[in-house]
Amino acid sequence: MAEAEARPAEPAGWAKALMSVCSLMFGVSAWVSINGLWVQMPLLVPRLPEGWNLGSILVIVIQVANLGPLAYTLARKRVQVKAAVHATLFVGLTAGVLLVFLWQETVAGHSVAFIALAFFLSMVDCTSSVLYMPFMARYPQQFLFWYMVGEGLSGLVPAGLALAQGVDKKADNETTGNGTYGNATHAGGSVGPRFSIEVFLSLLCVIVAISWAAFSVLAHLPALVAYQIPGQTLKKKKEPSLKYGSNDNRGYVPEDETDHAVPQVPEQPNGLERAGPSDDPGKADDLMKRWQWNLALAMQSTIAALSNGVLLAVQTYSSLPYGQLPYHLATNLATIANPLSCAVAGLLPVRSLWALVLFTLGGLVSAGYILFLAVESPEPILVGTVTGAALMVFAWVAFVSLMTFVKSRLAAGMMSHGGARSLLWYGVATQGGSFVGALTMFFVTNYTHVFKSA
Fold it and tell me: Per the record, which residues fall in region Disordered (predicted)?
């Protein structure tokens, strides 16, 4: 009874609408900057001296930027959440504005300004994963949902802007050579994108500024602060919980309440229904066999290595030989597929481990085809044909869709039966795989001749 009395009243109509909009816009800031850089890669690669190696460099920069969330985690007891959020948004907006003016500046033939500012943007976005959620947990869960919708839009919005921006047909002719699909389509053309990289980066800054304003309203407007729930945490919620659906942090998905209760039925060895870790990830408890636990972690580690390291590093090699337009479509459609797959994972709660293994194998087939194209660069199979370009785009979209779905369902299964402890090992597998994949490909692409540019 006392707990019910402590709960704030339902927000008034205008306050509820304002809180929903502000929560959504605050969520957009989570990963919009880094997603924006990725979808600009088709335009950045021909203009920066790193060329086709730019993707592998950006991958390793993002991995190093995980020092941000690590530092905050270690210092969180001495830092106020609101002040920390303001600080990260300030750093993100400042780095974004500087990037508008300095992205082409080089030192000794290297894009020092771009790489340094990309590091700060990456650190801000990585830190958002451990900082923004605790703040939003102060509010009723319906507004946490809107924050998660906004975080999903942090991938869709930059991709939509990039699709509207179009491709650089002049760069297409210069970078893909004779006989490619892009050159055949735009032969003799010299038309640039509809708006420049500077305009695109400026639009990202406007989005971050709006998100910062939305956070300021949430955190300081008395009419909205009044609806914060003292001592509110995600663990205390009895409603269906919300869980992160994608490692690139590009969208949360709602989980049905049934996913969070261990069913009192006999063990089903072929699925995740009875999955649950012990204190030692190498020791299975009575809810999960050791091989199932190890298989789930191995799947997540492999997916993370491919998604966050290996394939992003060779995206240019696998896509650009087919032309700027196919490269542009592969980058942006794959980005859009990520949050959509998270949503599908929430609507289709597949719990069979073997079904997830099959989805993973499908993703590995797509990954193998992408790597094959990258190794064969600059003249991969079916180069110069519409069929080859379409297969390349399909492979990228299929890989991202399948692997994002599997990651989301693995996280759901582990959370259902192991809680925070289980997700800890899920996170260890994710970060470990991502780091190994990124570090390996950084050296392979920059210090060997396995992948060749045009």
Answer: 238-283
